[in-house]
């Protein structure tokens, strides 16, 4: 978090010889959709010497870079500084009133006024550093907490709120639940100094120092407005909502990143961070990185649609998906002011293109990896026919995974999810369930002599299955229907000349995974029946 320094704090640092307090300019911020943020900052080193960055941001391990030549050294440490003139009370009277002369009124018996104590609120010593946890082999995250590092701190009473310690003629320990009122007679002569993290840059030459680091705290969420127009046209508008929980930004250039980067250590804090310890570092490094659930992959937010485990295998993209564009895209949205905690919504791009509305019916493969029925029944609602709009991405950059709302004549028709689609490539978005197009699917195993095949000690029977697809258009207008039927095994024959393709193999499956696709024109009130046959191995 970026902190503006008060004049009192600046005065403390001014006493340190040859150390200049800096507030680096944030030149640009590029954000992923998962909270990881690439920050470019810089400051001017007017002369050789030391430059202090107070309360620097937390960086990700292996992603903090200083461009100033080999003579530059960066050191993370803490410094005791004066708090602001009117600091926000912590609620701990022992800390808030340390060194002040006070008059404390205690509660008496049966609601009567009690004793009145005058004195000076005790000022405790600076907290002990404690001992470092070097039990690096431990995998219990709780063992890395600084509070469990052993030894009782001399300033322990300062961290509790049960007692108020007063120095008068004698030292008094007053239970907080017996205090009815505290009056400040005289403020403390000197406020308690607080420790604040700083990053110290030592340079041997003058010049502009460039900083690049990966941090956490900003993210963006894409949204798409698909507006259906006349004459089979649509207008696609991409908008973005940004949220800033990182730092205050002033006239900073912002960029939106889409894609699927490999960020192995996105979950590991840099050792330069002020709260870093070796124990925590080793514990984080030992955790699973790369495609791990959480901040490590770009699938957090909208990309995690296929399932909860972002490390699972993803469906193979179409051969032309993303053609003509890089697989990681930066889109600039200009310079903006954005304070910490603020959110920003804006339009990124808009364009028109031709489109086609079809009815799409996807029939899943109901067999498991051993050829038996049952496991892959799926969501019955998803297995029904849906109205779908198909179009080529008219934007100059890829569409990314996000919410897509469809409107027609300014009326809301539905909301779906877009996926990564390169410029000029085909996109397909669901609109609503096709209630007036009926579809039925059935499969039967044909009775014939079944050959037995032995695989890895198990018996499998070779059987032939006949499938039947029935579709009926009850609308008053003709429709074009796209039917996709998934199955396991070897294709034998089918009516209607469907296109045949392979699906990604599932680990351990004894049958190849395939798909048949028909494009069928249905007149108003027309019914069509399509049949197909395939063979597969079934574990009985």
Structure description:
Helix content is 4%, strand content 49%. The protein is mainly β and 540 residues long. The protein has three domains: 100 residues, no CATH class; 181 residues, no CATH class; 103 residues, Sandwich (Immunoglobulin-like). The strands form five sheets. Strands 14, 15, 18, 19, 20, 21, 22, 26, 28 and 29 form a ten-stranded mixed β-sheet that branches. Strands 5-13-3-2-16-17 form a six-stranded mixed β-sheet, with no helix packed on it. Strand 7 and strand 8 form a beta hairpin.
Fraction of residues in β-strands: over 45%
Mean of pLDDT: 83
Distance between the termini: 62 Å
Radius of gyration, whole Å: 33 Å
* Largest sheet descriptor: 10 strands, mixed
The number of helical runs is 3
Number of domains: 3
How many beta-strand runs? 30
Tell me the overall shape.
elongated
Ranges where pLDDT stays below 50 over 5 or more residues in a row are 1-17, 143-155, 291-325
The helix content is under 10%
Oligomeric organization of the protein chains: single chain
Structural class category: mainly beta
Provide a compact summary of the structure:
The protein has helices at residues 7-14, 93-96, 278-286; strands at residues 19-22, 25-31, 36-45, 49-54, 64-67, 73-81, 101-107, 113-121, 163-167, 171-175, 179-186, 194-203, 207-216, 218-228, 233-244, 249-259, 328-338, 343-363, 386-392, 402-408, 411-418, 426-433, 437-445, 451-455, 458-473, 479-488, 490-494, 499-502, 513-522, 527-539.
């Amino acid at each position: 978090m970026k902190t503006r320094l008060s004049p009192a704090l600046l005065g403390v640092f001014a006493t340190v010889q040859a150390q200049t307090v800096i507030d680096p300019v944030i030149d640009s911020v590029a954000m992923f959709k998962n909270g990881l943020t690439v920050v470019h900052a810089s400051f001017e080193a007017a002369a050789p010497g030391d430059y202090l960055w107070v309360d620097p941001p937390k960086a990700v391990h292996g992603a903090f870079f200083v461009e100033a030549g080999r003579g530059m050294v960066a050191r993370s440490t803490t410094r005791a500084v004066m708090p602001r003139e009117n600091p926000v009370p912590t609620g701990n009277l022992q800390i808030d009133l340390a060194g002040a002369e006070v008059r404390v009124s205690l509660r008496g018996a049966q609601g009567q006024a009690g004793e009145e104590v005058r004195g000076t609120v005790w000022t405790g010593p600076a907290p002990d550093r404690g001992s470092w946890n070097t039990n690096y082999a431990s995998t219990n995250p709780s063992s890395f907490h600084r509070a469990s590092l052993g030894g009782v701190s001399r300033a322990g009473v300062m961290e509790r709120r049960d007692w108020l310690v007063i120095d008068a003629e004698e030292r008094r320990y007053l239970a907080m639940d017996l205090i009815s009122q505290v009056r400040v007679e005289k403020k403390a002569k000197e406020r308690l100094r607080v420790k604040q993290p700083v990053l110290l840059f030592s340079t041997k030459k003058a010049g502009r120092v460039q900083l690049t680091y990966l941090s956490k705290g900003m993210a963006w969420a894409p949204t798409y407005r698909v507006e259906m127009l006349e004459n089979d046209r649509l207008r696609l508008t991409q908008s973005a909502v940004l949220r800033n929980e990182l730092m205050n930004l002033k006239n900073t250039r912002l960029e939106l990143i889409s894609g699927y980067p490999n960020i192995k250590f996105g979950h590991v804090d840099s050792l330069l961070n002020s709260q870093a310890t070796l124990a925590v570092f080793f514990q984080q490094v030992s955790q699973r990185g790369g495609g791990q659930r959480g901040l490590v992959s770009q699938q957090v937010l909208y990309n995690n649609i296929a399932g909860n485990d972002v490390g699972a295998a993803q469906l193979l993209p179409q051969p032309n998906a993303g053609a003509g564009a890089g697989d990681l895209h930066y889109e600039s949205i200009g310079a903006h002011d954005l304070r910490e905690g603020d959110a920003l919504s804006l339009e990124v791009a808009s364009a028109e293109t031709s489109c086609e509305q079809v009815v799409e019916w996807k029939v899943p493969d109901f067999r498991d990896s051993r050829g038996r029925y049952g496991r892959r029944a799926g969501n019955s609602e998803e297995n029904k026919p849906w109205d779908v709009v198909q179009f080529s991405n008219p934007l100059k950059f890829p569409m990314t995974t996000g919410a897509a709302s469809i409107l027609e004549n300014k009326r809301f028709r539905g909301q779906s999810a877009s996926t990564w689609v390169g410029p000029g490539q085909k996109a397909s978005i669901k609109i609503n369930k096709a209630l007036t197009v009926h579809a039925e699917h059935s499969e039967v195993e044909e009775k014939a002599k079944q050959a037995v095949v032995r695989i890895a000690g198990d018996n499998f029977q070779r059987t032939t299955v006949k499938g039947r697809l029935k579709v009926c258009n009850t609308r008053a207008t003709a429709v074009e229907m796209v039917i996709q039927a998934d199955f396991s095994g070897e294709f034998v024959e089918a009516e209607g000349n469907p296109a045949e393709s392979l699906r990604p193999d599932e680990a351990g499956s004894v049958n190849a995974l395939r798909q048949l696709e028909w494009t069928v024109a249905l007149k108003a009130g027309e019914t069509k029946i399509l049949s197909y046959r395939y063979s597969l191995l079934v574990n009985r």
